[in-house]
Amino acid sequence: MIDITTDAQNTAIVQVNGKIIGNTVVEFRQALHQQMEIGNVNLIIDLTNVPLLDSTALGVIIITWQILQRSEGKLVLLSPQQAVSSILEITRLTSILEVYDTKEAALNAFT
C-alpha cells in the first residue's frame, strides 16, 4: 500500500508499506509518475516500512531520479531498512541517491 502526503513546501512524501516486488512495483511506478504529472518535482520515498525491494523497483527509483534531475527536481530516500540499505550499497546507488534517516533531514534536503 502506498500513501502520499504533501508538505507545506510542495514536497511529496511517498510512503510505501510492504515489499516492493512483483505487482507492487507497478503500483509504485504509477504513484511516482502520478506525482510528477501533477507537477511535484520534489519527492521523498519513505522506505521505513519496506523490508525488501527487487531490481525492477530499483529501476523505477533510478528512472524517476533521472526524470526529476532533468526537470530540476530532486528525489531522496528516507530511512531504508537494513536489507534495503544493503541493496542500495551493493548496487552503489548510495553514490548518486541521497539517503536520510529522519523526515526532517529529508525535508531539509530541498531547501
Write a structural description:
By secondary structure, the chain is of the alpha/beta class. It has a single domain (2-108), classed as Transcription Regulator spoIIAA (2-Layer Sandwich). Helix content is 41%, strand content 24%. It contains 4 helices and 5 strands; from the N terminus they run ββαβαβαβα. A 5-stranded mixed sheet has the order 1-2-3-4-5. Strand 4, helix 3 and strand 5 (98-100) form a beta-alpha-beta unit. The longest helix is centred in the middle third of the chain and has 16 residues, at 55-70. 29% of the residues are buried. The model has no long low-confidence stretch (mean pLDDT 95).
N-to-C CA distance: 29 Å
Low-pLDDT ranges: none
Question: What composes the largest sheet?
Answer: 5 strands, mixed
Structural class designation: alpha/beta
Mean pLDDT: 95
**CATH fold descriptor:** Transcription Regulator spoIIAA
Number of domains: 1
Which CATH architecture is right? 2-Layer Sandwich
What is the count of β-strands? 5
Concise synopsis of the structure shown:
The chain has 111 residues and is α/β, with parallel strands linked by helices. It has four helices and five strands; from the N terminus they run ββαβαβαβα.
